[in-house]
Q: What sequence folds into this?
């Protein structure tokens, strides 16, 4: 029998890397995987790599403990884990990696702090984009459901809300997101800080959208008491759930969920936006099937971890073309993650990858 040679590339997410290193040495609780079994498998695997998105996560997570960083970097080198650039607009060069190997602890701390600024830049960029997508979807749908305005009026209002009204505010908002994230990282509360700030800004945008739309309707109908209508619209917005807290996303979901066809079209359009940004097919699918669904069908708040998870799963699209020329070699890529949400997604796009993860987890 002819046996297919196993040359698959294994990409590790952050938690898989920590388990490979030994979580107890990092003061972490145990992961749902036998570390010795994981180590045995990875030691036998010739082709394995660390995505740059994961590298950035690791370096920034331990930025205040340069001794640990030195140990992790030495481990990565000893285990032959090259970096794989998986962020379209951020590349870690070979020269950079070489220089890091010679840094003392003080230099390594400064380097990790610089990486944190880069991470915040990436997270703020995506957060702003998700904010604009959600705001514009809400405005588009509210306009579609509004009587008393011509299509020309609606297009003009949407253009104002989507472009003109936020053009000057966009740069300011991005800088404010960076400041909030930096503050959150300083306090080790970055997830909560970003969620709270994001939802407050989104809430204000949706309330303002309601006021603009109803104000325009009132003007078209020659209403005299515009101020009263604005006040009523504001009050109705708050009563509908736009409270800047736990009610905001459910309110937006309830608004959009009345038209599943509208949401399905929006998913495709959002995915196409990221295609232009050179994001891989799997990254776009994660955005569409995990993040988009989480926001607009289950009413979840923005989770910044999703941003780097999305970048990580893009490694599944990597194929070593030099090996793929031989049909007897499995040259495809696999991502090792023991995170439930990541595993569920991996199982839908690459079932054999999930089987590998489960084999490592469950094999006796």
A:
């Amino acid at each position: 029998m002819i046996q297919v040679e196993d040359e698959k590339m294994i990409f590790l997410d952050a938690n898989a890397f920590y388990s490979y290193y030994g979580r107890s040495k990092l003061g972490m609780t145990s992961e749902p995987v036998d570390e010795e079994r994981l180590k045995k498998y990875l030691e036998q695997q010739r082709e394995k790599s660390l995505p740059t998105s994961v590298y950035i996560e690791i370096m920034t997570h331990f930025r205040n403990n340069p001794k640990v960083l030195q140990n992790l970097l030495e481990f990565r080198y000893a285990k032959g884990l090259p970096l794989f650039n998986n962020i379209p607009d951020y590349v870690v060069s070979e020269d950079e990696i070489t220089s890091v190997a010679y840094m003392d602890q003080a230099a390594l701390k400064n380097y990790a702090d610089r990486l944190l600024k880069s991470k915040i830049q990436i997270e703020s960029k995506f957060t702003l984009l998700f904010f604009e997508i959600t705001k514009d979807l809400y405005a588009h749908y509210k306009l579609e459901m509004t009587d008393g305005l011509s299509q020309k009026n609606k297009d003009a209002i949407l253009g104002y809300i989507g472009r003109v009204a936020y053009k000057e505010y966009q740069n300011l908002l991005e800088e404010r997101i960076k400041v909030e994230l930096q503050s959150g990282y300083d306090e080790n509360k970055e997830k909560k800080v970003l969620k709270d700030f994001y939802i407050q800004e989104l809430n204000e945008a949706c309330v303002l959208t309601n006021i603009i739309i109803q104000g325009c309707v009132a003007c078209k109908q020659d209403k005299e008491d515009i101020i009263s209508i604005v006040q009523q619209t504001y009050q109705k917005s708050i009563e509908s759930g736009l409270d800047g807290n736990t009610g905001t996303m459910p309110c937006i979901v309830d608004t959009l969920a009345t038209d599943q066809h509208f949401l399905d079209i929006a998913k495709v359009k959002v995915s196409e936006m990221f295609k232009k940004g050179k994001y891989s097919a799997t990254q776009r699918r994660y955005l569409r099937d995990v993040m988009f669904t989480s926001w607009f069908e289950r009413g979840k708040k923005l989770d910044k971890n999703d941003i780097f998870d999305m970048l990580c799963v893009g490694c599944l699209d990597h194929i070593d073309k030099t090996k793929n020329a031989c049909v007897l070699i499995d040259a495809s890529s696999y991502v090792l993650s023991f995170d439930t949400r990541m595993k569920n997604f991996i199982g839908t796009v690459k079932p054999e990858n999930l089987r590998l993860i489960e084999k490592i987890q469950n094999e006796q």
Observations:
- Residues 113-258 form one domain.
